[in-house]
Amino acid sequence: MLNQIKGLHHVTSLASSASRNNAFFTDALGLRRVKKTVNFDAPDVYHLYYGDAQGTPGSVMTYFPFPQAARGRPGTGEVGRTSFSVPEGSLDAWADRLSTFETAGLSRDTRFGQDRVLFDGPDGDAFALIATRDDERAPWTGNGVNEDMAIRGFHSADMRLRDAGASAELLRFMGYEETGKDGDVTRFEVPGGNGADAIDIETLPGAAHAAQGAGSVHHIAFAVENRARQLEVREALIDTGHAVTPVIDRDYFWAIYFRTPGGVLFEVATNEPGFDIDEDTAHLGEALKLPSQHAHLRDKLERILEPIQ
Q: Alpha carbon of 174 to those of 102, 188, 303: distances in Å?
């Protein structure tokens, strides 16, 4: 069993409009845009990162906004909902705030004894705010959301699967422990994690398979401290039969990827070097930053990429 993984690093999804996506995460949810860059494989598409003041692993939601992309179809074989941790006692304020932004899909429920506000993003992306006790992570409060309610980072991600067996075994191998069941949902948590510690598996044996599009999660990334720990994880996964990519330099972290038995794409990402490697912390996310292989495209990209504030 692995002990290098310390919870979620980031969650990456697809969108249909960069400006609408940016407004939702910075204005409605009050997160900081910590990086404005481009998709390594499609440089005419942004890669936008939102999180806390430094883009701390475990707080960062990222997006590839493909202009006018068709919506995805929810189903199995995907991450169906991404949940953020907020302080206990703040859900009424959040429900009021999200209503003022005309947020779709607002509802309330309880899972594993924790109260939640459920809501949809601009492309039908499914989110939750979970009232969490004693989450000591420092929030970003620069966008009009006060400290008493501000998002602390991720709480968990939901995997929707027809059969949970093989994916549950994989999570156990990755260091997660089963900590409870609530209906058809099983929770797994990594001990001693970074706060973004939980994965919920929802078993839906009769549901159709998801079709990816705007509003779909592309992949979820798990955090390791550094490249040495990442190589240990990579070797262990390969030894157990997983097809794992070589290490890929993503400028702000190093990444490896593999497909889970349930169809969800997993990444293991390093906490190093971080988002301040090419920008001062006070100005994260303001300028368009380009990977070196696309630097020669700057003039063209600045003309064609959708303007965002």
A: 39, 11, 44
